[in-house]
Known about the structure:
The protein is α/β, with parallel strands linked by helices. It is built from 5 helices and 5 strands; from the N terminus they run βββαβαβααα. A 5-stranded mixed sheet has the order 3-2-1-4-5, sandwiched between helices. The radius of gyration is 20 Å and the shape is globular. The termini are far apart.
Amino acid sequence: xxxxxxDPGLTRCGIxxxxxxxxxxxxxxxxxxxxxxxxAEIGSRLVAIEQGMDAWLDEHRPEHVAVERVFAQHNVRxxxxxxxxxxxxxxxxxxxxxxxxxxxxxxxxxxxxxSGRADKxxxxxxxxxxxxxxxxxxxxxxxxALALAICHIWRAPAMNRLQQAQxxxxxxxxxxxxxxxxxxx
Length: 185
């Protein structure tokens, strides 16, 4: 499975691409940051994020896109910018028919480090170890994107089984002993 993951932000939008399957060694295919100038108009910043996302999607052709779920903070301005960058990432993937999954920061930290309260240094250290890198990716947004991709690869099989079970539970059930009636007009 090839996953492109996005740690959304207006100034720095971390992007990481990881390939592999749960239970096997994973491979980093790319990592970076889409940057926008903080003094630019919001519209041009969102266009720059879209162009950056499209370039990454063209180059890496992921099967899945994982985006960090926006969570409420005290700073509404930061939350809005993060949500806008997140929406651009989801739009770019959806426009191409690529499935999008959202993961919370604590879910990602727990998957990668074992603790949902891990700090950035712990996440960076585990990403470095899990992907067999020489050093933690910089800036932290890039390492966070790789952690998000790892989380998705490890959790996607369980999420798929859960979604299938939920779909089966919602499907109408016809008792095996029910007679089948032929309708004629």
